[in-house]
Amino acid sequence: MLVLFLASGNLVAGEREDWRVRTGLDVFASLLAADQDIAKKQGPDGKLLLILMYSDKKERAEDMARDLMRIGNISKIPIRVETAASLTGYEKVPVAGVFLTQKVTHEFGAVMRYGIKHRIIIFSPFQGDVERGASGGILISDRILPYLNLETMHLSDIRIKPFFLRIAETP
Q1: What does each of the 171 residues of the chain score in pLDDT, given as a tens digit?
Q2: Residues in a beta bridge with 148
Q3: Could you report the per-residue pLDDT of 129-143, keeping only the tens digit for each?
Q4: What is the DSSP string of 17-64?
Q5: CATH classification for the domain delimited by 2-167, as one of 3.40.50.2300, 1.20.1440.120, 3.40.640.10, 3.60.40.10
Q6: Which residues of 25-44 are buried (b: 16+ CB within 10 A; e: fewer)?
Q7: What DSSP character marks residue 16?
Q8: Angle 53-129-109 (CA atoms, 0-180°, nearest 5)?
Q9: What angle, 0 to 180 degrees and rounded to 10, lies between the N-to-C axes of helices 58-69 and 2-34?
Q10: Are 145 and 165 in contact (CB under 8 A)?
Q11: Which of 6, 35, 76, 100 fits as disulfide partner to 124, beta carbons 3.0 to 4.6 Å?
Q12: What is the pLDDT of residues 49-82, one digit of tens each?
């Protein structure tokens, strides 16, 4: 009986994490639209390349990529969504933003450095990641709010529209 209780507790925690990630995906798209320089982040194909980064749950990331593709465009610019376990292959490719679909532990610093170097938003819906350096995330209280690390935004030279800054929370 205890095993069943523990298993159901994990299922609830897993569902809660999935809800948090999927909710974060909506805020990610809104944050990208609030980037004043988003048009400069188009690739040669005229699209914004968005990377959904995963650790070991590729199918989950691909499912989220399909969901994100349904929005079609951000700030009237078409999007292209790819999934990746690493950003290694994206050093010379224009990326508009990275969304972490899973908690990244061992590569977190490298991912944040990539975002700063390439002047893009690294978005993590996971608790504690904005404080650790992710440029954006979500804060859940009695409502869901964008959560921004203004220091990382400054280091990344990302300019966010004032209306978005007014509704966002910061650490």
Answers
A1: 444 444 444 445 567 778 899 999 999 999 999 999 999 999 999 999 999 999 999 999 999 999 999 999 999 999 999 999 999 999 999 999 999 999 988 899 999 999 999 999 999 999 999 999 999 999 998 999 999 999 999 999 999 999 999 999 999
A2: 136
A3: 999 999 999 999 899
A4: HHHHHHHHHHHHHHHHHHBTTGGGGB-TTS-EEEEEE-SS-HHHHHHH
A5: 3.40.50.2300
A6: bebbbebbbbbeebeebbee
A7: H
A8: 65
A9: 40
A10: no
A11: 100
A12: 999 999 999 999 999 999 999 999 999 999 999 9
What does the block give as tokens for 19? 């809800």
Strand partners, 121: 97
Q: What is the CA radius of gyration of the chain?
A: 16
DSSP line for 82-146: EEES-SGGGSSS---EEEESS---TTHHHHHHHHHHHT-EEE--STTHHHHT-SEEEEESSSEEE
And the tokens for 129?
Answer: 């990641």
Cβ pair 145, 167 in contact under 8 A: yes
